[in-house]
Every structure is written in structure tokens, then in C-alpha cells.
Amino acid sequence: MSDTPPVVEFKDVAIDRGGTTVWSHGTFSIPAGSVVAVIGPNGSGKTTLLHLLLGLLSPTAGRVRVLGDTPHRGDRRLGYVPQHHLGSVGGALRCRDLVALGLVGNRWGLGRLHPTGREAIECALRSVDASDFAGERVSAVSGGQQQRIAIAQALVHDPELLLLDEPLANLDLRHQEEMVGLLRDLAVAGDRTILVVTHDLNSLLPILTGAVYLLDGHAHYDEIGNVVDGELLSHLYGTSVRVVRTPQGDLFTRST
Ligand SMILES: Nc1ncnc2c1ncn2[C@@H]1O[C@H](COP(=O)(O)OP(=O)(O)OP(=O)(O)O)[C@@H](O)[C@H]1O
Ligand SMILES: [Mg+2]
User: Fold this and answer.
1) Is the model more confident about 56 or about 108?
2) What is the layout of strands, in order, in the sheet containing 20-30?
3) CA-based angle 102:99:89, to the nearest 5?
4) In this predicted model, what pLDDT tens digit does every residue of 75-101 receive, in sequence order?
5) Hey, whose CA ends up nearest to atom 11 of ligand 1?
6) Residue of the nearest CA to atom 27 in ligand 1?
7) Domains with residue ranges and CATH for the chain
8) Residue with CA at minimum distance from ligand 1 atom 14
9) How far is the CA of 249 from the centre of ligand 1 (A)?
């Protein structure tokens, strides 16, 4: 882990939506270079937490800092893949153009890209191993390939902090494994920090260094070894979860 200041700092943060407190008492720091799961049941405020980091929502109480600043919209040091992202994007677009949208923000600018911009797009496509199908229409590639394109779009500015909202959702086991491998590569390259909202802790365990967990209306952060705890996860998910350490040292959580 590097000596640089924390990427995310929360000081007694609370967030209300629609007149109700989603969660409160969030006080923690996330070190640079971390790969962090954001976990909690449906409606516990995981997407809301990402929106705070992006400056799309303001905290009701407390202070949020991201990369040393108050969060603000359009901060190019952050990359974001929203939940259900491609559902809202035209499938007729070609994959490469979708990545280009991350750079120019609208489809009218696509023809006027600078050579540096074009290289950034090809670099993002290469980093998710999508160069081979970059010319295909988004609607013509598989769900796993679409997820990779969505990540390439978020990577096109080479962000220091990458926020992914359920990137494993709707992927079969093989594509999930590929996605975890991709996230591992992205974390290793360039000391990037990654926050991943997920309902599938098991798949990500091999690469996680920590987790933000939303429990009983409060936001917490801890190292992954402390979060993978049967009692904590059972409480969090409201169902019995067991943690097993295999002879190889892997940790698994299972409903019992
Ligand atoms: N636009 C909105 N206006 C008012 N309340 C909202 C809005 N979006 C979300 N909420 C409420 O905020 C709470 C947290 O929602 P959020 O989407 O952050 O949950 P989540 O943990 O991401 O859930 P999921 O696992 O289903 O994606 C929920 O109670 C939800 O009803
Ligand atoms: Mg969500």
C-alpha cells in the first residue's frame, strides 16, 4: 500500500433521500491502491454512496473528501460505471464509439477527435481486452463484452479512482471470472483505487483489500480479513453465512 493520502475520507457522514436517512455515522478512510467491495442489502444505500463520491448528491451531515477535494461533478480523476449502465445506452452504437463518449460526452463530437483522444480510446479498449470487437455494435456483443466496454468508457481518462456499480450482475460464471481477472489487472496497473458494489463477495474475495459495509443504517469500512466474518455477514445479509478457510487459504462464505 502506498504512502499517499487516503483516496476517500468520510467524517461523520449522513445522507438522506426523500426525507429519510439512508445511512449515517460514516467515518473512515480508504487508502490509495485499495480494491474495495461496497456491500449491503438492497436499498441500503450502496449506489447512494457512489453518488456522494461523484458529487451527484451532497451529504446531509459530515464531510466527504475524494482525492483530497470536496466531490464535484465532472472530476476526470474518477471513472464511473453505473448500475444497469448499458440499458440506457443505444445498442446501435459501435463499441468504440461508446468508449469515445466517455471522452467527448456526446455523439456529435465523435468525428472530431484529436489523435491523442483516439489513442486514449484504443488504450482503454486494450486494457479491457476489447480491441477485437471494438467495431461491433453494442447490441451485437455478449453481456460480458458489454460490461468490458462500459468499463473501457470509464477508463478512457485513466482515472485514479474507479467506481463500479455491480459489474458482475448478469454475468455467467466464466464471464464473472474474466471480470475479476480484469479488475485485478486494472488494480495492479497504475496504483488505481477501485470501489466495486457487489452482492457477490465470493467472486471478488481473491482481489479485495477492504470493504465498505452498510449495516443497521451506518456506513463502515474495514480490511477485508475483518469483514469476512460469519457473524458480521449474517447480520448484514439477514441470513446465516458461514466463513470457511480452505487448505489453500481461500475464504468462502456460504449460506448455511
Ligand atoms: N432518486 C431517489 N429519490 C428518493 N429516494 C431514493 C432515490 N434513489 C434511491 N432512493 C432511496 O435511497 C435508498 C438507497 O438506495 P440505493 O439505490 O442507494 O440502494 P442500493 O444499496 O444501491 O440498492 P440495490 O442493491 O437495490 O442497488 C433506498 O431506500 C431508496 O429507496
Ligand atoms: Mg444500487
Assistant:
1) 56
2) 61-66, 8-17, 20-30, 218-223, 210-215, 35-39, 193-197, 161-165, 78-81
3) 85
4) 999 999 998 776 666 678 899 999 998
5) 17
6) 42
7) 1-77+159-228 (3.40.50.300), 89-158 (no CATH)
8) 45
9) 36
Beta carbons of 195 and 38 less than 8 angstroms apart: yes
Quick check: 20 pLDDT over 90? yes
Instruction: Judge if the beta carbon of residue 51 lies within 6 A of ligand 1.
Output: no
Per-residue confidence (pLDDT) for residue 247, from 0 to 100: 78
Predicted confidence band of residue 143 (pLDDT cuts 50, 70, 90): confident
Using a CB cutoff of 5 Å, list residues around ligand 2, an ion. 47, 83
| pTM, two decimal places | 0.92
For ligand 1, mutation pick of 47, 60, 196, 212 (most atoms within 8 Å of CB): 47
Tell whether the model's pLDDT for residue 250 goes beyond 90: no
